[in-house]
Structures are given as structure tokens and as C-alpha cells.
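Lecture notes, unit on protein representations.

Consider one protein chain, 310 amino acids long.
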Amino acid sequence: MKVLVIQQRYGIGDMVIFSPYIQAISKKCGVPVSILAKKSSKASEIFSEDDSVNEIIDLERSLDTIRGFFKLSKILKEKNFDRVYIFNGSLRYNLIVKHAGIKSIFQYPLYTSKDIIFQTAKIFTENSIGEIVDTQPYIKTDKKKSDLIFDKDYKHIILGLSASGETKRWGVNNFVKVTNKVSRERKCKFYLAGGSADQKIIDEFIGKSESKNFFSLTNLNIKEIISIIKYADLYLGNDTGFMHISSALGLKCIGLFIDSPAYAYSGYTKNIEAIVPRGETINSTTHNTNGRDKISSDEVIQKVLEHIAK
């Protein structure tokens, strides 16, 4: 049997959240699956050590258009898939896989939108395979130790300074205030998670920070960053893909939900403690909350110190 999973969302965090369901489908079918995914999701690196996945098919931009309908259908047809699981309610993908000759099709209800990402995926997968699936992701990694030395005298904290949009970022000055205070209370090393596009933000943080115990991860790929995160003690930062990776590697995470759906992106795991703007709740914080100035640095400092005291 050849099985395809379609998960077309852009984000790294989205792919991490979907990973338990992809793994469950593979286990139920008894074969590793192929995933149709965008490069930006970093699926190839997230699943690089995972034997439930044997192939990532790149959903390049030209395929994710009306003109790309027949081209994508041809690619899928040549791979002779027997079964497909579609993690969206798109009529377009339904028609593409039918045109590709895939007979057994499992898909979200057509036109599904504005859903709570992990709940919809859980219900869909459980209904499709007839088994209960835990929402907690788990990224499988190799045993290679990071080249960085994790001194036991220090607490090692992953900092997620950036985010997918300006309104989702708490602000460099806030992080500087928190890390300066925490460093005075406890010996800490900070690992600045981000990509090349985040270099300006990271440079700003480095220039303003009192501490010199930091390491930029911008020159590493996701697989290399995973090998570092798995040995850290805590994640502190915005709602980013690095927060979800940290959660999937078993870290406790302090997630700052300023302008994104807090429940949808933290309710799937006990590893993320969501901090939301003053006057909001985990259920009310969503896009357009615009709460950057409504999260107290004192509250964040207290939470960090509580976590690293354990």
C-alpha cells in the first residue's frame, strides 16, 4: 500500500502540530507515508529521523495554483498512491487526487475553515483510522549530541524573539529586560532561535543585552537547531515554530500569545504555558488582539524564574 498525506499549511509549527496524526496514520496503515507539503513547513527536517515518513513531495508555488492542477495531478498519478488523507477541506485537492486516480480518499469536510487546528485534525484522524490519537507531538531525533557544551551549572533557555508577523512579536526591549533580570538571579545561557530573516532582530538583542552568554542559531538549519533544543531547559518566546519544536522535544515552554489564537496553538500540549495580554483569556486571544503592550515583563520574569528553579 502507498499512502499520501496532504498538509499544505506554510508554518513549521503547523507541521509539528500535525505530526502525531501523520504518525498515527502510518502506524495504522502499516507503511511509511509520503507527505505533500510546502518547503516552508520544513517537513523534510522535522521528519528526517522518523520512520513513519519515507518521502516529502515539495508543494512548490507553481503547483499550488489553478494552473498547477494538472501538473500536480500528474505527479501524484505517477507515484501510484492507493490512499490519501487530506488535512484540509479544499475541493481543489479533492478533485486533484481523484484526477490522479487515487481510489481511497479521506478528507476534512469540504470548505472547513476557521477551525481549531489540532482539534479538527484529531477528530478527522480518529474518525479515519478508528483509534484515539494523543495530541502531543513527538519529534524523533538521532542520538548525536550537540557540539555546544551544556554546562550543568547553567540553565539553558531557547529564546524565540521573532514571529511570522510584526504584531505577534513582544519586542526586543521586553526580552532584554527579562533576560537581564533572570541572568542576575541565575546563571543562564540563551540560544537565539531564528532564521536568516531574523538577523536584524537578533543583532538588536545582542547589542542591548547585559549578558554575553548567548548563541545565535541563525546560521543553522532546522535539523541542527533541533539537536540543540532537545538539551535545553526552557523555551521563552513568541508563538513561533521554535516554540512548537521545543514542545515536541519535551521542553517546558513559556509562550507569549500577543496576536494569535492562544488556545489553538497551545491547547494541544501540557508543555506550553500560554501568557496572554491583560484582559484576555486563552480562548479570547486571537488574530487582531494586538496585545504587545499588555503583557507585563514582571509576569514573564516570575514565570521564567519559577521554571528554572525546578
